[in-house]
Design brief:
Layout lengths: L2 H25 L5 H42 L9 H33 L4 H34 L6 H41 L12 H37 L3 H26 L6 H27 L3 E4 L6 E4 L1 H26 L4 H9 L4 H14 L2 H18 L1 H12 L2 H23 L4 H45 L8 H42 L2 H4 L6 H15 L1 H16 L4 H38 L9 H37 L1 H4 L1
Antiparallel strand pairs: 1-2
Helix pairs in contact: 1-4, 1-7, 2-3, 2-5, 2-6, 2-18, 3-4, 3-5, 3-6, 3-14, 4-5, 4-6, 4-7, 4-14, 5-6, 5-16, 5-18, 5-21, 6-7, 6-13, 6-14, 6-15, 6-18, 6-21, 7-8, 7-13, 7-14, 8-9, 9-12, 9-13, 9-15, 10-11, 10-20, 11-20, 11-21, 12-13, 13-15, 14-15, 15-20, 15-21, ...
Length: 682
């Protein structure tokens, strides 16, 4: 039996388990009628947005399918294949299915988590985490099914297999960028608008039902942090596996190509064990429960991947596909490269936690800076964000250099697979965060009692940390995946080592470094425009219906939901299209060409990685500094320090939840576009 069949079977098992979890969550009690009503608003808003977003995506998929089909047919002799258009559709549709399935689970788990908290924190954790596990298992399982099925369908096409599989990755990347940008604009337009008017101007607390944007804000948690994050990590996951397969094929080593699928299969099984440990934890320490599951899945993956490497990977001498120098491939060198990826992911996660959690000095210093006003709060957060880039960048550089020295560029790509191997567990923790956030919001709005609200806030506080760690993890994996794609580009297209003495390459590096800044500008400006409209709408409702603030009249929630939806759908198109066109334009301009595209990918990856880490950690630090003050420090809620910290938080929101996370996908998407459309540059 070919090894990818194992991936297909384990992937199908993962989908079945996700379905079981979904129906288990659905069977739990929703609680009071008021809680049900609020949850229904959130669920309907989230599903309405996703349906409208997917209609736009369907048009894009069809248009791009036709373009890829024509280009694949016309440039077949140069190495492209029209069948990449088929895998493109396949990759995009599976990503959309994973997003829809996961978000549906999140929007039924939120209210059931609130109700389960009546019995205590372990019950609430079980519902919230099981709901998150639906997303985690869907993303990893459908990714594994997709890559395994595509590999099995076209494995006889040895010469064209890589080009065909790159189509799958392009489909995943496209959907991911639309979902990330669209979801990010939606959630932050509502969040910023709700905070500016609600907290700063009229002084009502977070998730207060009197705030007209409160439902849109809670909907945004689902479309941005569940569907958006899921599409992002799905795309990194399949991208790293496909990049490894392509390099293995180029080396003429089938076992090394298929090892990536086996590692992903092992990671899924290990993640399932970790998920079951966390979901059935009986103690009160939520963070310990999540850590136990996470550590178990990582250790199991490492052990089993080592055993499998020993069993199937031969020791063989090959020529490096870039430099031509001799490399001795072996099971233990490959295994060590994989472990480097796992370690890099853990290091980046802990660094993110250190710089963004209010348990540590950096964020506490940001909170202290808020005592002298918004300006010093913002300056402190910027400083924290900038400093936080150092260790992640050094970690990625070390992982890349050591893995390259061990087994060449194959080492870089298998390190990315290692980092992402426990994706099902990582994504479950990420999706748990927004569910806990929604549960706390519903507890506040439905007035379910102080004790339940405090338990919900406990779950939410841990969820904020897991979300921050998830962002760091997503950025690190994106950098390694983009480097793996670059390795493929330099082999297949240029055919020789890219050197910096070529002025075209230097120009490409500068142009590539520019792209993340242009892209971030478009994303932040989109949030700013939508937030201004949201602020004006909230003010209008408060002005024209005074009874809202007195609690005697119900706000028009649907109007705010509509503002976020329209803004997201309108504003997500230009950044995504520009990301696809940029590498193609660099490639076809005569003065630049194919070498410049190589430099373009490197420049975009370096600046995009740094900018993404800076934005994610500065935003996370401002957010948690505000929460630290809300716990009663530096004057507590309503104090001048609190008002200053809210300003910092609203500045950080579009950085950490819109622009920053979108850069992960930008650098991968531009790399895969360069690979797919390369024959046009020749």
């Amino acid at each position: 039996m070919e090894y990818p069949w194992i991936g297909l079977i384990i992937g199908i098992f993962g989908v079945l388990l996700a379905s079981y979890f979904y129906y288990w969550v659905k069977k739990q009690d929703e609680g009071s009628e008021e809680a049900k009503r609020i949850a229904r608003y959130i669920r309907e808003g989230a599903q309405a947005f996703l349906k409208r977003e997917y209609k736009t995506l369907a048009i894009y998929l069809v248009v791009m399918f036709v373009i890829l089909f024509i280009i694949g047919y016309l440039f077949s002799e140069q190495g492209l294949d029209f069948r990449s258009s088929i895998t493109f559709i396949f990759g995009g549709i599976l990503s959309a299915i994973a997003g829809y399935f996961g978000m549906s689970a999140a929007t039924i788990a939120n209210v059931r988590t609130t109700n389960a908290l009546k019995e205590g924190i372990p019950s609430g954790l079980k519902v919230a985490f099981t709901g998150g596990a639906v997303m985690g298992l869907s993303v990893a399982s459908l990714g594994l099914i997709g890559v395994s099925a595509a590999y099995l369908a076209f494995s006889h096409e040895t010469q064209k297999l890589a080009a065909i599989l790159f189509g799958f990755s392009f489909g995943a990347s496209s959907i991911a960028l639309f979902a990330r940008v669209g979801g990010g604009i939606y959630t932050k337009a509502a969040d910023v608008g709700a905070d500016i008017v609600g907290k700063v101007e009229v002084g009502i607390p977070e998730d207060d039902p009197r705030n007209p944007a409160v439902i849109a804000d809670n909907v945004g948690d689902n479309v941005g942090d569940v569907a958006g994050m899921g599409a992002d990590l799905y795309e990194s996951y399949v991208g790293s596996i496909i990049a490894t397969i392509a390099i293995g094929i180029a080396l003429g080593l089938k076992e090394y190509a298929e090892y990536a699928i086996l590692v992903a299969s092992i990671g899924l099984i290990a993640s399932i064990v970790g998920i079951l440990i966390t979901a059935n934890y009986k103690g009160e320490n939520v963070f310990k429960a999540l850590n136990m599951g996470s550590v178990t899945s990582v250790v199991l993956t490492a052990l089993l991947s080592g055993i499998v490497a020993y069993m199937i990977l031969p020791e063989v001498s090959v020529s490096d596909i870039i430099t031509g120098s001799k490399i001795v491939m072996s099971w233990y060198k490959t295994f060590f490269s994989l472990i480097l990826g796992l370690i890099a992911g853990i290091v980046i996660g802990f660094v993110t936690q250190y710089y963004t959690s209010d348990q540590y000095k950096p964020t506490q210093d940001v909170a202290k800076a808020a005592t002298t006003g918004p300006a010093t709060d913002i300056l402190a957060g910027m400083s924290v964000g900038m400093m936080s880039t150092m260790i992640p960048m050094i970690t990625i550089a070390l992982a890349m250099i050591i893995s390259y020295k061990l087994v060449g560029i194959y080492g870089i790509s298998i390190a990315a697979v290692g980092m992402l191997s426990t994706l099902a567990m990582t994504m479950s923790m990420d999706a748990y965060g927004p569910i806990a956030d929604n549960a706390a919001g519903i507890a506040e709005m439905a007035k379910v009692g102080e004790e339940i609200r405090k338990r919900a806030e406990n779950l939410d506080a841990v969820g904020n940390t897991t979300a921050a760690i998830g962002k760091g993890f997503a950025i690190g994996s994106a950098a390694l995946t983009a480097l793996a794609f670059f390795a493929n580009y330099s082999k297949y297209i240029v055919g020789e080592d890219i050197t910096i003495t070529n002025p075209s390459i230097v120009a490409g590096v500068f142009l590539g470094a520019l792209m993340p800044f242009i892209f971030s500008s478009m994303a932040i400006r989109a949030v700013q425009r939508a937030a201004m409209e949201m602020v004006n709408e909230i003010r209008r409702q408060f002005r024209e219906t005074p009874g809202i603030l007195e609690g005697k009249a119900t706000p028009d929630y649907s109007r705010c939901v509509d503002i976020s939806t329209k803004a997201a759908l309108k504003e997500m198109i230009l950044p995504t299209v520009s990301a696809i066109l940029a590498p193609v334009l660099v490639g076809i301009i005569p003065a630049l060409g194919k070498e410049a595209v190589g430099g373009f990918i490197i420049g975009a990856t370096a600046s995009g990685f740094l900018l993404a880490v800076y934005m994610a950690n500065a935003g996370g630090s401002w957010d948690n500094a505000k929460k630290f003050i809300e716990k009663g420090n530096f004057g507590g809620k309503g104090s001048d320090a609190h008002k200053a910290s809210v300003v910092g938080d609203t500045v950080g929101d579009p950085l950490k939840d819109t622009a920053g996370p979108s850069l992960n996908i930008l650098i991968k998407l531009m790399s895969i576009v360069a690979l797919l459309f390369a024959p046009i540059f020749l």
